[in-house]
From TrEMBL, chains A, B:
Cofactor: pyridoxal 5'-phosphate
Keywords: Decarboxylase, Lyase, Pyridoxal phosphate
Annotated PANTHER family: CYSTEINE SULFINIC ACID DECARBOXYLASE (PTHR45677:SF8), GLUTAMATE DECARBOXYLASE-RELATED (PTHR45677)
Database matches in Gene3D superfamilies: Aspartate Aminotransferase, domain 1 (3.90.1150.10), Type I PLP-dependent aspartate aminotransferase-like (Major domain) (3.40.640.10)
Protein name: Glutamate decarboxylase
Stated family: Belongs to the group II decarboxylase family.
Length: 554, 554
């Protein structure tokens, strides 16, 4: 009896402790000298320093890290905030990736301006939901305005146009979304629904689905055409939309990684002849791997000829439009029916800010939907024209960045990034042990380490010999890239791309993205020097390569 | 000549000023006494106070607010951070919605625990991209662990199960996403692709699309069955997936807003007879409008019988599983093939945290995709099984909340919310001037203001009279709800629902969600009192209603 009583009272005690700690976390702020308070201060005062100090440089193998995240049981009892934060710092932050480091030039995530941190806190504190005005109020017109600005950046319509459409309930100049994938998916969804629209008895693909739509329109299939450098999200979109991945047709590229326009025209003709309807031609404005831009003007003409949707995936390159120096690279983008731009890439906004703009403000009617409690007809709720439902107020961060950085500021950032890429390309070209594989058009380039004897050999080798050498070089490139990443000083990524001078065969290359404004020329030189050192550490591939060269020269 | 020189030098001066301000924003932190520094401090010390002080209570009409967001031109020159922040405070924050106010009980967004603010700042500062390990490292096992915990919450498999699958490269226990809509879409995408899988010559719907899939499987169509209370995202998903909105078949509900199980069984039989393949039966666990839960166990049996995917949309109600007191309400959820849960609803995480879990860790193989530079086969990159590409590290916030609040803490929060709803329902029932339309099962309820004379009249009126009265009551409800919102002290939402006692006709009701832990009983009583006052201010509908009653009693 006594034990039962004791047990009960201990349960009651625990419950009341939980109750108290619950009340605290909702009502009592973290004190400035609490663990979280101190972290906030450190981040506010010196973000790079904070990250540099807390993120462990030398890489721990993933399976080691997984041991810290192995328990599937739900925590039964509350943990003190400060204890948990120490745990996060030791186990999570320490083993995260220093994406804003100036020497991490392998991905599209870069440094953020300082004002973004407190503004993000404000965004979270306000916790608006952009799906409807009732939970976002002024954030709705703000998001519409940002979409208007981005639309104007692409299409440059006049004041009257924006006056008329920017805040119109039944129109939308675009859609904010979590990222480029959803942006591309939204664009192709709009394209599909507009093409297979209601017609006579047929109520449209949105209502009746693709099976009935193709039967009604008597097509034997559909196709989306994009260069072989197109982003994988297009195949994913085709899968989701019920069109099928195989309907995404990869058109070959020229030696500058741009779509072969004749091949595109031929393919359109062939498909049309076979009663396969071209749904959309997709131009790439900044390929993910090489940063090259398709000939958009000529692609637009073909799209016009085949009366299909012309989408431009400018998730990476779109921000280039902010530079008067370089926006000519994107000529023709204003002819696109829709354009994807990721603000979380070259617009220096944190992860989670993609968008798509539509030339015709009425085209989103094809994906309009309503419900009883929100998105009522005639309301200006943004959620009636977006793929996502509840969404955070990321538009505020884009809005603030556009004002604080301004067009001129973005121009400088973009111009400097491209200049830096040209500088790096020149260094690679001048260096005896490196081969520049793709030259920069925007701030991306690819290259690899090739010992000079091997370079000489590649010039004169037979096709078979080249394949043997490239296969060894692939291994060496992978070795260097992994070692460099693991040693934690710097990071370039790697990818495989078809290279014209090797008969279109794929080779493994280092891929570099130079968008971080804090990356200096010294850092770039150090990265090359480190790669040379690492190559020499390779006990296997480098000797094998040199043996190949020796054998061939016999 | 002189003017040209002057102009040039002023351009150069401007450029160098822009250059300098750019350098500042990337390298110099906001000082503690800067505008942003002060805002941060205020938010850290007293978030509710900060919001209460900066958000203007009395509503400004939307068309007035739009005037502040009317310019479509891109800002050409940089603005000082502090100037811009003042602008944001005055024009945006002032006119945003106080979603965390304890008296705003009309939406599903509520107060956040204090630790969330600094942690969100940490998340943004780290700026990880969860699409791949290279840009997220420890965040990837962390997200997999959170999915494991949520999977265990739903399915309760044993340690061995989670040991085997949680960190397996080619499996996934679920997917994080921006919200419930993408979660539902992902679940139905998996369901579609698994049903219409590769078979003989046919390479599967993912590759060949729906048109060929239905031809191959010789179905005349597909269907998704859900109660008439199902969320609008299901129709949207059916549209996106190419199945068509009309294929979402709304099954009637009983007087408790639960699916009529016989009607569901009959419809399945009818569809099957007509060669329409039932793709999925969707159970609702917490309807958006009334918070009721479908009979999941019985639905699972029917899904089993028709060999179709059983999805449960528990975007709202899923967190109830954390309460041992109430999880029995969700009995049968463990039989679902997939379950949607929004962490940004009853798990008190900020906007942007939805997820879906899958019973079978292999089922996501149906939506697997790869690319050259990331998501290589065999890698553990999360992006190979998600609809979205680049994604932020929201999983950290769910992880921290699960540890700091813990299961017991969530149980208390959920139990208290439901208790509060029962208290409010009782108050409404006891009050002579209100009609409880739907009683709470979770913490949602709906009701309306009905003067007692009118209530008496409704008991005895003819069908025609009831319709006239309800139509007037609808106008009165709308009037009260709008006035209450505009006056800014409190907020309930409104929706239209079919009401059993009015022959299933739709009536307009107040909708209340009682998830904010800071909402007190006093606040609830004040809301009722305010609504009574507002009703009396109605110069039109209340007199008309009373006139109707007088007329009828003659």
């Amino acid at each position: 009896m006594r034990t039962v009583l004791n047990k009960m009272s201990s349960t009651t005690r625990r419950a009341s402790a939980t109750q108290e700690s619950l009340h605290r976390i909702f009502t009592i702020p973290e004190a400035p000298d609490s663990t979280l308070g101190v972290i906030e201060k450190e981040m506010s005062e010196n973000l790079l320093g904070f990250l540099g100090q807390h993120i462990v440089a030398v890489e721990k193998p993933l399976n080691e890290i997984e041991k810290d995240f192995a328990c599937s049981a739900l925590p039964e009892e509350p943990e003190f905030v400060s204890d948990h934060i120490h745990h996060l710092l030791n186990k999570l932050v320490a083993q995260s990736v220093h994406t804003s480091s100036p020497s991490f030039i392998g991905h599209m995530t870069s440094a953020l301006p300082y004002f973004i941190l407190p503004l993000s806190k404000l965004m979270v504190g306000l916790n608006q939901n952009l799906v409807k005005i009732e939970t976002s109020k002024a954030f709705t017109p703000l998001e519409r305005q940002v979409l208007g600005m981005m639309h104007r950046l692409v299409y440059g319509d006049n004041d009257d146009f924006y006056q008329q459409w920017m805040h119109s309930a039944n129109h939308s100049l675009g859609a904010f979304c979590s990222g480029g994938t959803v942006a591309n998916l939204t664009a192709l969804w709009v394209a599909r629904n507009n093409l297979l629209k209601a017609d006579g008895e047929f109520k449209g693909v949105a209502r009746e689905g693709l099976f009935k739509a193709l039967k009604h329109y008597q097509y034997d299939g559909m196709a989306i055409l994009v260069s072989e450098r197109g982003h994988y999200s297009l195949k994913k979109s085709a899968d989701v939309l019920g069109i099928g991945q195989d309907s995404v047709i990869a058109i070959p590229t020229d030696k500058y990684n741009k779509i072969d326009i004749n091949a595109l025209a031929d393919k359109c003709q062939e498909l049309t002849r076979n009663n396969i309807r071209v749904l959309s031609i997709v131009g790439v404005a900044g390929t993910t791997e090489t940063g090259n831009i398709d000939p958009l003007m000529e692609m637009a003409k073909i799209a016009q000829q085949y009366q299909c949707h012309f989408h431009v995936d400018a998730a990476w390159g779109g921000a280039t439009l902010l530079s008067n120096t370089h926006r000519k690279l994107m000529a023709g983008i204003e002819l696109a029916d829709s354009v994807t731009i990721d603000a979380h890439k070259q617009m220096y906004v944190p992860m989670g800010a993609g968008l798509v703009v539509f030339k015709n403000p009425a085209s989103v009617a094809a994906i309009e939907h309503h419900a009883e409690y929100i998105l009522r007809k005639g309301s200006k709720d943004l959620g009636s024209h977006t793929l996502e439902g509840s969404r955070p107020g990321m538009a505020m961060l884009v809005y603030a960045s556009l004002h604080i950085i301004s067009r001129q500021g973005y121009e400088m950032l973009i111009d400097q990034s491209i200049d830096k890429a040209h500088y790096f390309a020149q260094k690679i070209n001048e260096h005896p042990e490196f081969e520049l594989v793709t030259a920069p058009e925007l701030c991306l380039l690819t290259y690899r380490y090739v010992p000079k004897e091997v370079q000489a050999m590649l010039e004169i080798a037979s096709q078979d010999q080249i394949e043997v050498i490239n296969s060894l070089l692939d291994k060496l490139t992978k070795f260097i890239q992994k070692r460099q990443r693991e040693s934690g000083k710097s990071f370039v990524s790697r990818t495989r791309i078809e290279v014209n001078r090797y008969q279109g065969k794929k080779v493994l290359v280092f891929r570099v993205v130079l968008a971080n404004p804090l990356t200096t020329k010294d850092i770039l030189n150090d990265i090359l020097a480190e790669q040379c050192e690492l190559a020499k550490e390779s006990q296997k591939y480098l000797p094998e390569l040199l043996a190949q060269v020796a054998k061939a020269s016999v």
